[in-house]
């Protein structure tokens, strides 16, 4: 593959497109999805409903409050191959900026119709998709709110487990968020979802490291 083709893959992947070219391991190494801290609110309350639609809770008739969004993407390894059967463990605050977690003591309300936590898998060609609500900033009415984000833990046997967070483009709190500001411009781009032509629809690709045999 030519040097230009490899650069084309890297550019398209960072832009959130489903690129078809392959990158060399050395070049793609810099394109791994950046890591981020887990945060204090990883779910600890068991729940049966962990499907890809977080806007509804099984057994309840209502729907989650807030703006409903859809995020789709693919999982790649560091050589540009798509990876099927990857487990994506994701959790986030509700539209009010409240986590469904007993240690989140902020005054924002809990949304009983918001699923809050999902565990899904990538399918054919590493594709995944989930529906959720646009997460609120937290803590509510604080001087140092965290910008809206979604937590992701990405794992599969034979690959290095990735813990990261995804962000949203052009949000006014991004430039004030301590964790987001620590990243380079390239890292920020890799951690930020991309808008599509569909309303409230985003693309987000993940690149994970395959463990050498």
Automatic annotation (TrEMBL):
The record's listing under Gene3D superfamilies reads:
Aromatic compound dioxygenase (2.60.130.10)
UniProtKB keywords: Dioxygenase, Oxidoreductase, Signal
Q: Which organism is it from?
A: Pseudoalteromonas rubra
Q: Which InterPro entries does this one have? A: 3_4-PCD, Intradiol_dOase_C, Intradiol_dOase_core, Intradiol_RC_Dioxygenase, TAT_signal, TAT_signal_bac_arc
* Classification via SUPFAM superfamilies: Aromatic compound dioxygenase
Query: What is the protein named?
Result: Protocatechuate 3,4-dioxygenase
Q: Which family does it belong to?
A: Belongs to the intradiol ring-cleavage dioxygenase family.
- MF terms in GO: ferric iron binding; protocatechuate 3,4-dioxygenase activity
Endpoints of the signal sequence: 1-28
Residues in Intradiol ring-cleavage dioxygenases domain copies: 71-99
Question: One of this protein's Pfam families, by short name?
Answer: Dioxygenase_C
**PANTHER family cross-referenced by the UniProt entry:** DIOXYGENASE, PUTATIVE (AFU_ORTHOLOGUE AFUA_2G02910)-RELATED, INTRADIOL RING-CLEAVAGE DIOXYGENASES DOMAIN-CONTAINING PROTEIN
């Amino acid at each position: 593959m030519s040097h230009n083709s490899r650069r084309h893959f890297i550019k398209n992947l960072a832009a959130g497109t489903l690129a078809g070219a392959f990158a060399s391991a050395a070049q793609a190494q810099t394109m791994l999805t950046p890591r981020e801290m887990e945060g204090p609110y990883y779910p600890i309350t068991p729940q049966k409903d962990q499907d890809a639609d977080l806007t509804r809770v099984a057994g309840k008739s209502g729907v989650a409050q807030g703006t409903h969004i859809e995020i789709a993407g693919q999982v790649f390894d560091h050589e540009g191959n798509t990876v099927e059967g990857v487990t994506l463990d994701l959790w986030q605050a509700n539209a009010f900026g409240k986590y469904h977690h007993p240690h989140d003591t902020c005054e924002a309300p809990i949304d009983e119709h918001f699923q809050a936590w999902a565990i899904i898998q990538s399918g054919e060609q590493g594709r995944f998709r989930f529906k959720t609500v646009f997460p609120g900033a937290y803590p509510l009415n604080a001087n140092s709110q965290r910008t809206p984000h979604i937590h992701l833990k990405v794992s599969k046997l034979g690959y290095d487990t990735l813990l990261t967070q995804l962000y949203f483009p052009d949000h006014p709190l991004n430039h004030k968020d301590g964790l987001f500001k620590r990243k380079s411009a390239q890292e920020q781009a890799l951690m930020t979802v991309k808008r599509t032509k569909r309303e409230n629809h985003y693309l987000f690709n993940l690149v994970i490291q395959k463990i050498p045999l």
